[in-house]
Structure formats: structure tokens, C-alpha cells
Amino acid sequence: MLKRLVYLLLLLPMACVEPYEVEVPEGEQLLTVEGIISTGPGPHAITLTRSATYGSIFEGLIRPVSLATVVVRDNEGNVTFLIEGADGLKGSYFTPANFRAQVGKSYTLQIRTAEGKVYTSTPERVTAVPAIQSLEIRNVTIPTEESSVPKSGIQLIAGLKDPADENNFYYWKNGQAVYILETRPDLFTPRPTTANPNRTPQPKDCCVQCYRYEAGNNQSLFVVNDDSFNGLNTKIPASFIADDGFRFVNKFRMDLKQYSISQGAYRYLRLVKQQAEISGSIFDPPPATLRGNMLSLDNPDEVVLGYFMAGGETSRRIYVDKSDLTFKQNRAIIQDDCRVISGAFIDPPADWKP
Amino acid sequence: MQLLRTSILFFILLAFWSCTQEDETPILVSTEEVLFVGGDKIRVSGRLLANREVLAEDHGFEFSTQSSFANPIIVSLGEKNQPGRFIGEKNGFKLSQTYFVKAFATINGKRLEGKVIELSTLSPAVTSFAPSYGVVGQELVIQGKNFPEGTKVFFGNQEAQVLQNVFESKLTVKIPAPTGQIVVPIKLRVQDREITLSTPFEYQAGKYTKVSDFPGNLRIYDNSYFSNATGFYVGLGKIKLGDNYAGFQRFNPATGTWTEVNFPGNKRRFAFATANYLGGGAIETSRDVFQFDRSFWKINGSNFERLGDLPFNTRDAMAVEWNSKLFLFGGLDAASFLVRMYDPQQAKWVNMQNAPFLLGRIGAVFTWENRIFVLSNIGQLWEYEPNQDRWQLRTTYPGKTGFGHPVAEVIGNKAYLGLYRATQELWELDLETLKWKTKNQIIGLPQSITSGHFQHNGSIYFLRTPEEPIIGSLTMELYKFDPDAI
To answer: pLDDT (tens digit, 9 = 90+) per residue, A249-299?
Structure first.
């Protein structure tokens, strides 16, 4: 009897099990501001987007914020209106080409959205940036679990003379790159058609070599402060360019941009970098709230993502020859005229002087 | 004993634990950042710092011109029931004035204050404005910096309505009605300051006044016209739905009256005429069949003296006198590119080289500083150099060219061109700089053609005739145009 009672008692908790509904608060689509104005040649771009909502399933897209009035205002009251880009660049707002930030001035970004909401950044002061005195190449290989061939590329090491008696914060970005793209038009085989169902090869006479332009490819953030080298000459990793099987087949050129940014911008970027590089190990830094410098004037408690940066800019060009690489990826083959590749042109840039 | 000792120690420890109190961190107020300083506006952010729930009865900012905060301007943001950022904004500060600002919060009757920040309001300045030439009601944009709300804009002494002030840097105003002056300074009044823009504004000018109707309520087409010291002459051509018109009517601009003038020649349409010569033309004997008239006349006041006949037929040619010679340009009947010159001393006609574009009364001709200019039916302004028998394209008419038949009159260094068929635009061309400036549009029936134009005492007269297909008792109207009046 007692034994039966025990079985019955065991059944009771099982019958009481109910599925637990996790109620995730509906995520807002937050305004996200991203961009930098600098002392370098314009136009400079500020990009406005609305973040995707979060939840248990994919609920939205990152949408550009269009038709906003965006201005950059300096501490003397001079206002520069930014113009929204055309199709494909909606949500990106550009300064006039002749606009350059000036060292010593503070700038604020002001935004009035199409809905009439007004946002402002806190002032960002532009400080002078020392020149990049040297650029060196360091070969990098990264072992991966997926392949026996490690990933590889080059790291650019920037040499600079840090000014003493001031705190400096540096940020590097890859500028536009150009490289010689080599393809195999002699191997061209068209898609099967009724006229050519067997895909008979149709070699082309032209062209093997093109110059391919590539927008700044920044897969990781390079920021540093001068705590450990204040006032000294130093060399710092400032860029990584992955070998994708195309870039380093012949000659590669890139302009590395070096910015002096504010302490707030440095903190923000460092946190972004840390969180982007979290691998899930116990030694990872704890996640922290990314607090940008944009405020809503209508609701100071509204969360606005991103950071408006203003800084001094300098750049240095480097040519990388295939012989500079000690380890190279297998050469990628395009079986066509090189001119069919987007951004590839037969004529070299006017200032191509390797 | 040992048990007792242990028990006492345990109770002592318990007593300490029971006395433990939570140590509360202080609540702070921070004057965080000056977000905006304009001409008369300041925006500041502050923060209430606490690690627990807090209720501030009031919070905000204090502004003062003195660091002691005597006579402060207080921006009260009211109750705040949680820590965090707050933003205060205030207008009405004096231009270029130093101020001190601090954040405050009142919690449980206790006032907390943030650090004091010193700042200076800015001065307004203008960098540019556009357009510098326009009409009443048009929008004008003034670019600059630090334009506070309440900035007033004046055109001369006339206040303009400010439509928009974008980011205190772009003022959009509606151009006010003029008070008689065409060129007026633009002034901005900000608080007790007045800024006068370096470049004045010019009102689009040109006043049309109807002065008369053509006698007899007639409408004539394909007519001829000319003017001399005795008045404006309009005549010949074809009366609407009637016969050809036999003579001329002379208008006296001084008295505003018309007088009939006999023409000793035959009736005709499409005859050319200048101040001193008249000739050619044709009558239409049946549809598109013309009987040409080669008679050629010298005009002396209101009298016509017949000269030797033309050695060619001509219809709808454009005529101009230059250096005592008469030039005939183009016309109908395969003469579109022909240029002919008449030398009265030798009483001889000479064919010049063909023009590079269509000529005839589909265009307009004028002379200036011993040079001949032709405005073509498609708006090209050509200069003809008779001595070199050469054409040069000078500029292009910026307005609508409708269906050709423009007008051209010159006063001083300014040519007044336009009134193409089916348009009402008239433009002023500075013949020295070749810069165009639009004038006010002509009034009256838009579907009118210009049947004659003349000049008198700095004014231009346009005789406007409703297009032939337009029915009704509409007459030919003579308008006086004063280029610089509004």
C-alpha cells in the first residue's frame, strides 16, 4: 500500500510541470550613429541607422535613417550641412568635399530626423596628430581548425613620435587600396546555353592584369593610448590585411590613416574591440555597456548607439610586393577577363608609383 | 567553563553583526558638459549620481554673469525620481557675454550643486545669401552663424517674414514688398545689434503700364512697324477676318494719341521696315499663293519716297540700319540664310555670305556701339561683323524661346530681349558683361504676340496683339515698360 502511495506521490510533481515562457522585452530600434570627421581631405561620412530589434528570433533589419538633417557645428557656431548620399548610400551623410576639421576646434554633430526628433553629440575636440614616420610589414599566419592551411596576411607596423606633455589616443583605419589583379581569360568558359550546351571553352585575348580598387577593409579595430610610450618613438601594429589569394599575387598598395581621437572615443573603441574579440573563455574581459556620445534632446534617457568622432588625420602609403610575404595563400583563379571584376580597371592609377 | 567562554564569544560576535549598518554612498550632482552655446542659447547636460533610488524635488541649472551667481537665471526641470542625465536649455542670453553655469538638485530639502563652468555666448555673423536678385514673395536664404530665435531681417526698412531658422545658421525669409527702391541693403537685427550685409539685394524690376489700344479696335497681323522722331508707326499687314490694312497709324507717346498716316504704296503683308526704309512684302491672292511687291521706300517723318525697286522678292525679312547702310536678314521663300546689304549712296544691293543660322522676323535684331546683334528664334545671340562679313555666337538667351519671334530693344548698355511667342518673359542683358537678368513678366493676355516695339524717353513700348485664332473683342494693346520701375 505504502509502495503504491510512493509511486503516486512521484507522479504528482511530474504532472505539475509546465513549460516556462521566457518573456523577452521587445527590443527598440535604436538610432545608431557612426562616423568621423577629421583634418584630412573630405568628404567625411556620418552614417545613421536604426538597430535591429533583438529577441529569440531574427526580427528586423538594420535600416538606414534617411531624410534627416545632419549638421556638424564647431565651437564658434559655424555649421556645415551634410548631404545624404544617393541610392545605395541612403542613411550616409557627407560633408562637402572641401570640409576639413581644424585642430583646436570642438565639433558637435546635430541631427534632426524626419520625425522631428533632435539629437546632439557631446563636443569632440580635434587634436593634432603626429605623422606616421615609418610603415613596416610583418607577416602573420593564423592557424585555424577548419583548414590545414592557416589564414595569413600582413600586419602594418606604424612608427611614430608621440608628443610629450599630453595624453594621446590613436586610431588607425585602412584607407583605399589598389592592387594588381591577375586573372586567366584564356580559361574562360561561358555558361551553358542552347547555342553552347557543352560549355566549350572560349578563351579571351584580354585582359590578364587589371588594377582593382578596394574600399578600406577594416575587420578589426586598432586603437592605442600613449600611456606606455608618452613622448617616445614607438612602433605599433596599426593594420591587418588578410591574404585572400588575390591581393598579394603581384603588387598591393594601401593608404593607412592615423587619427588622433578623444579620450572618450578611445574608451568607446577599446570597449568595442574588447567585446568584438571576446572568445568565450574565462579570461575574457566582462562585457560592459557601450556608452556613446550621442544624446536625445527630447528624451535624455533614450539610448543612442554609436560615437561621433572628430580627430586629426594623417596618412601614409605603402606598396607591398609579393616577395615581401613569407607565406602566401594559394592563388585564386578567375577564369575571365579581369575587367569584368567590379572595381577593376585596365589603366593604373595616375599616382601609381611602386 | 569552556562552553561558557565560547558562548560569550559567539554572542559578542552576534552583537557586532547585528550592529552592522549599510553605509550609503553620497548623492552627487555633476555639471557634465556644455552641449551648445549659440548667440543667445545655451544647452548644458548634468547628471544626478546615486547608487540607489532617489527623489529630487527639483533639479536644473543656474546661470549667471557673475561667478558668485548673484541674480541667477534658473532653469528648473522639476522633479526627478531616478539618477541619471538631465539636459537644460535656455534662450534669451546676451550676445558675446560671459556666463557661469552649474547644475543643481534639491533632495530632501538639501541643495546639491555641481561644478561651475564658465562659457561665453557667441556673436552672429553672415557668410552669404542667395538669391541677390528676386521678386516679392520669393524665398531668400541667409547663411551664417549664431542667428538666435527672434532674429529680424529687413530689406531696406521693410521687415521680412522669417520662415525658418535651421540650426541657427540658415535663415529662410520671404522677400517683402519693395518700398520704391530697387536696390536695398539687407539688415539683420539681433538684440541690440544690426548687421548689414556687404552685398545689397536687388528687386526684380520692370513695370508695365497699358497706355492705349490700337485705333478702330482692329487686330492686324503680319504688319510692319517702325519709329522715328515723329512717333511710333504700325500698319500694313492683314486685318483679322478682313482685308489687308492699307496705311499706318502713328502713336505720339507725348500725347498718347494715334493719327492715321497714308501710305502711297500698295497694301502688303510681311514688309520689312526700319526708321528710314520700308519695302518688299506680298499679298496672298489665294491660300499660300503670294503676289510679291518689290517697291522700296525711303521714310521721311510721315512721308514715303519711292526708291528704285528691289531686285528680289522678299517676305518677312528682318531689317536693320548700320552705318547708313541697310541690312536685310533672311525671310521666307528660301531666303532664310541670306544676308543682303543696301548702300544708299550707290543705290545698290549686295549679297553677303550666308548666315550660319535661320534669319528673318522669326528673330530680332539690334545695334549697339556700331555692332549688329541678332537674337535667333532658338535663343542664340549672334554678333554680325559687317566689315568682315562674319558671325560670332556671343551668348544664349536663358529664358523660354517659345515659337520664336522675340523682341530686342537697347537702352544704354542694356539690351531687353525676350517676349518670344507664347512666353511672357523679358530679360535684360548687360552688353558689356553679357550677364542676363530676368525682368518682370509682361502683363495682359498671355496668348499675345508682339506686333511692334519702340523706345521713348528711357521706356520701351510693346504693342501686343492676341493670337489670331483667339476669338472675342480683344484689341491690340500698347504697353509702356519702365525697366527699372517696380
So the answer is: 999 999 999 999 999 999 999 999 988 887 777 777 777 778 899 999 998
pLDDT of residue B241: 87
Domain assignments of chain B as residue spans, ordered by start:
28-120, 125-202, 207-482
Q: Name every chain B residue with its beta carbon within 8 A of the beta carbon of A69.
A: 166-167
This model of the complex carries an ipTM of 0.79
Chain B contacts to A (CB-CB under 8 A): 33-39, 43, 45, 84-87, 89, 122, 125, 145-146, 166-170
Contact B168 A75 (CB under 8 A): no
How do residues A64-115 score in pLDDT, each as one tens digit? 999 999 999 999 999 999 999 988 889 999 999 999 999 999 999 999 999 9
Contact indicator for A276, A284 with CB cutoff of 8 Å:
no
Is the previous residue joined to B131 through a cis bond, with omega within 30 degrees of 0? yes
Q: What is the CATH number of domain B125-202?
A: 2.60.40.10
Q: What is the dihedral of CA A330, A331, A336, A338, to 10 degrees?
A: 150
Q: Which of B33, B36, B93, B119 to mutate to test the interface with A (most CBs of A within 10 A)?
A: B36
CATH numeric code, B207-482: 2.120.10.80
Which strand (E) or helix (H) includes residue B31? Answer: strand B28-37
Quick check: do B125-202 and B207-482 share a fold? no
B413-465 confidence digits (pLDDT tens): 999 999 999 899 999 999 999 999 999 999 999 999 999 999 999 999 999 99
**Chain A environment of B33 (Cβ under 8 Å):** 122-123
Q: Is the pLDDT of residue B124 over 80?
A: yes
| Rg of chain B over all Cα atoms, to the nearest angstrom | 40
Who among A69, A120, A123 is closest to B166 (CB)? A69
Tell me: the pLDDT tens digits for B328-359?
999 998 899 999 999 999 999 999 999 999 99
Distances (CA, A) of B276 to A65, B344, B401: 71, 11, 29
Fold of B28-120: Immunoglobulin-like (2.60.40)
The pLDDT > 70 percentage for chain B reads 96
At residue B401, what is the residue type?
A: T
Amino acid at B418: G
Q: Given an 8 Å threshold on Cβ–Cβ distance, is A108 in contact with B35?
A: yes
